[in-house]
Amino acid sequence: MANRLKMAMMASILTLRRQGLSGRRIAELLGIHRETVSRYLRLARAGTATEAELGEAGAAPHPGLEASNPAIAPPGSDVSKPAIAPPGSGVPNPAIAPTGLDLADPQDLSRLLPPPLLRAGPSSRCEPHRAVIAAKLEAGLSAQRIYQDLVAEHAFTGSYYSVRRMVRRLSGPASVPFRRMECAPGQEAQVDFGTGAPIIIPDKEVLPAGVKLRRRRTHVFRIVLSHSRKAYSEAVYRQTTEEFIRCLENAFRHFGGVPRTLVIDNLRAAVTQADWFDPQLNPKVRSFCEHYGTGILPTRPYTPRHKGKIERGIGYVKNNALKGRTFESLADQNRHLREGEQTVADTRIHGTTRRQVGQVFQSVERTALQPLPPDLFPSFTESRRKVNRDGHVEVARAYYSVPPEHLGREVWARWDARVVRIFNTSMQPIAVHARQEPGRFSSQDRHLLPEKISGIERGSAWLLAQVRRVGPATGCWAEAMIENRGIEGVRVLLGLLHLTRRHDAESLERACDVAQTHGAYRLRVIRELLKRLAPAQEQFEFIDRHPIIRSLEEYGQFVQAALAAPTGSAGVCRAGSAAWPGDSTPPARQPHSPVRRRATGT
């Protein structure tokens, strides 16, 4: 059966032919057989064809063209006639366009073609009101408002959805093409994680029927150099910060250099807070970048097109290298990935660059990478810690001091097998300690406030220096006391300094001089001497009379009157309180209570 082409393909054939291209070239460009191209060109040159002939060619007959195609003999024709009629015979020549048609003229060319460029299906009921809808759309009216106005003002009989489709067709934004970002050699690498092939390993539980297999999920780390598309892949079990750093370091060693920037997704292993303008990176990842002299640029959240090279690279690994495969161990999967990169990925012609990946990397990009540092990134563990009330932080069950201004705040602790480093939230170092065993404390003197250091901690030399400030006699007695009593005398020095708070220096000097003369080196001797040598206390005279306070004689008279007065007399109240001498107003009379009677014996 002959090929049937659409009207757009027929137009393409005629347009390319008008541009001077041969039939063979047109067939190559359009991907069709050249005999099909020749058939359509013959029909175009003839200018007319029957409905059956155009049906064989894949086109509908043009209205108004009724002549037959001489290339195909119509029913009842004489096939013995030559294919090309002689001049003057009246038979149209297929190699010559019909009279009045010029194939170079687009208008005449359109007459040869049926109208295929019109939209298929029935026309929209909004088509007569297209100008009105466009004007209202420019005025900012919604599709619902435009529909209501059409019904009210133009007697529109169509549906709202018809208006909405027309509004969408008129106001739909034209798609803006994406801008490709190509990078210089060694400038950029893109990093991401994808799903790896599962690991099938025997379970620890052995069943009677045999060994139970366990399926473990893996993740594939992949980094792609943006210029050459050279890549490195590694399978891991977890997407932690340590695994991310280790994979990056292995990739740099595999490339033999370091790219200047790394474009990553907002994965938790590297980004603690996603922000397009000011992202917050993990402190350990930041230190890794400083060690290797590179920078990390996270993409906008939920915008994978910002790292399209690695997105396509992850799909390449999943669909090409790992799809439908399982492995017995993580090492087997990494070995398969490494061999696939060398034998397949590096030797392929990349679809965008049209160059071999491995050759571009070796000849152009490898020398453009930054050199590797002399040593690896130090391996350590880090975590956020809160400073306790004693000014220490707990790291691996041991305790390390920090400056007192960080009390109650959070700090970052990094530790390895030998050293513990403590940083503030801005990653500025504030303390360095040697690693201690669990349960031990590492306290530095510069981390303690002066008022929190006791005299015993300061030592006898510091205490003697403080005692000598009182006077020479006190200093001599303290030195002799230390020589006689040894370590016990440290607390005596503390007691001697405590006496300076209540006694003056002159009194202490006299007391220590006397005690030194008699060879008495006990603190209680100093205290007793201070009592004896203390000056006599001054006597103060009390005021004899005060206008507010009654004298003792008046209180005595009151007591005597209360005792001498009989029960129920006018001088004593019934409650048992006597009236003051000289008071003319008798107390109010109150009834006797049974308790008072028993108390007085009445």
Quick take:
By secondary structure, the protein is of the alpha+beta class. The protein is built from 21 helices and 16 strands.
Can you give a write-up of this model?
The protein is of the alpha+beta class and 602 residues long. The chain has 21 helices and 16 strands. A 5-stranded mixed β-sheet has the order 5-4-1-6-9, with helices on both faces. Helix 7 crosses helix 8 and helix 15 packs parallel to helix 17. The radius of gyration is 53 Å and the shape is elongated.
The whole-angstrom Rg is 53 Å
Strand content: 5-15%
Q: Helical content, roughly?
A: 25-40%
pLDDT < 50 stretches:
48-104, 108-120, 570-578, 588-602
Apparent shape: elongated
Major sheet size, sense and barrel closure: 5 strands, mixed
The span between the termini is 148 Å
Q: What is the residue-averaged pLDDT? A: 78
* Number of strand segments: 16
Number of helices, where a helix is a run of at least 4 consecutive DSSP H or I residues: 21
